[in-house]
């Protein structure tokens, strides 16, 4: 969904607004989070235990006790357009560590039957969320859209996730259940918003993809390599070295990591296999697997150990990142059309890639990230070589 033309001057203005918002939000968080728990020297020096330490001996007690609430907003406003994937939002919650899932009866039996997520010694979390995606053709002014343009479509869904992780690898299995079509209420949301901002109204929603119950089953695995190679002063002996300076300790907090991933989705909404890589660098780097877009089974940015600044009260953290995700696509209902009846459709591309870059800021238990996404052509008759959108993610670890 686009904003009025006078607000579309440049990407730099948009990013500046995001930075201003982040400063206000994170500044306010300082006061509200002042009572958060701290990791003490005694915690770091205590001999390893089998349950509350990583393989490297880093405590995990506070990270295990910390659920996360996450809000996602994705919009092509940041790309200066109003077409293709035009808007998405999701609100999700991830539980604290459940050890052995802590379910009973058929629920426990069901979870224990799932692959990948029942390895001994992993932190285990359950997540729930609700989201909506909106797709429009490139020309929204036509009451009868061009049949060679992508169809109008909406997707509203609930998702249920089962996550198992260590500090080095994480597996996520997600089930999405929802509705594609008029009862996703995507047309109502977009029309209301454009009326609110006095923008051009989308005229062709009468030709959207029809109602269809949607189901996706998704899995994704992430690894975290080279993590914290130059972080955490105590890990480098500065705390016990009487000759170390504050500059030495600050320098030791700079770090980087590489986070490759693979995954697959099977369903009548989406069916694809994907693989990619994200690289991050910054100060006080969070101990997690990065921030994903709103793709199925994208991992939530939840702490894995007590060196994470969101649980150890380490003040500010900031980092930059870049990444790529490639997909081999077998089905995309938003391009292929309805599964069991005729609808508008276009010829999709079988290979699509997202190139991403952005920044993140952490203040105590709050994190804000901005991601710019450049997506390659998704269908044969798409005008231009790519589509652009931005993603803003905020999370609260409590």
TrEMBL record:
Q: What is the lineage of its organism?
A: Bacteria, Pseudomonadati, Verrucomicrobiota, Opitutia, Opitutales
> Secretion signal: which residues?
1-37
- This chain belongs to the protein called Lipid A deacylase LpxR family protein
- Which keywords does this Swiss-Prot/TrEMBL entry list? Signal
Pfam families linked: LpxR (PF09982)
């Amino acid at each position: 969904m686009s904003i009025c033309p006078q607000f579309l001057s440049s990407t730099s203005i948009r990013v500046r607004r995001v930075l201003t918002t982040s400063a206000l939000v994170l500044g306010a968080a300082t006061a509200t989070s002042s009572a958060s728990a701290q990791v003490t020297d005694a915690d770091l020096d205590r001999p390893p235990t089998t349950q509350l330490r990583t393989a490297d001996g880093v405590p995990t007690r506070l990270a295990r006790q910390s659920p996360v609430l996450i809000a996602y907003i994705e919009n092509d406003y940041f790309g200066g357009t109003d077409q293709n994937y035009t808007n998405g939002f999701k609100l999700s919650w991830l539980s604290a560590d459940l050890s052995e899932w802590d379910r009973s009866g058929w629920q426990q039996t069901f979870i224990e039957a799932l692959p990948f997520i029942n390895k001994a010694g992993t932190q285990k979390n359950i997540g729930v969320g609700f989201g909506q995606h909106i797709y429009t053709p490139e020309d929204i002014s036509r009451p009868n859209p061009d049949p060679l343009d992508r169809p109008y479509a909406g997707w509203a869904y609930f998702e249920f996730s089962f996550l198992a992780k260590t500090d080095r690898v994480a597996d996520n299995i997600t089930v999405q259940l929802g509705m594609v079509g008029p009862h996703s209420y995507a047309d109502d949301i977009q029309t209301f918003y454009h009326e609110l901002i006095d923008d051009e109204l989308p005229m062709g929603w009468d030709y959207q993809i029809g109602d269809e119950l949607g189901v996706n089953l998704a899995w994704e695995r992430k690894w975290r390599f080279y993590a914290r190679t130059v972080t955490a002063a105590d890990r480098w002996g500065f705390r016990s070295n009487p000759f170390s300076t504050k500059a030495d300790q600050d320098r030791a907090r700079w770090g980087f990591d590489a986070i490759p991933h693979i995954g697959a989705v099977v369903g009548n909404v989406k069916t694809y296999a994907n693989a990619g890589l994200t690289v991050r660098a910054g100060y006080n780097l969070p101990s997690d697997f990065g921030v994903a877009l709103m793709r199925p089974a994208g991992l939530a940015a939840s702490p894995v150990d007590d060196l994470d600044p969101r649980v150890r009260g380490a003040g500010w953290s900031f980092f930059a990142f870049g990444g790529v995700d490639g997909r081999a696509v077998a089905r995309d209902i938003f391009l292929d059309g309805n599964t069991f009846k005729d609808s508008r459709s276009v010829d999709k591309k079988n290979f699509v890639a997202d190139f991403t870059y952005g920044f993140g800021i952490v203040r105590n238990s709050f994190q804000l990230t901005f991601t710019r996404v450049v997506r390659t052509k998704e269908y044969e008759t798409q005008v231009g070589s790519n589509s652009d959108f931005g993603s803003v993610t905020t999370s609260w670890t409590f």
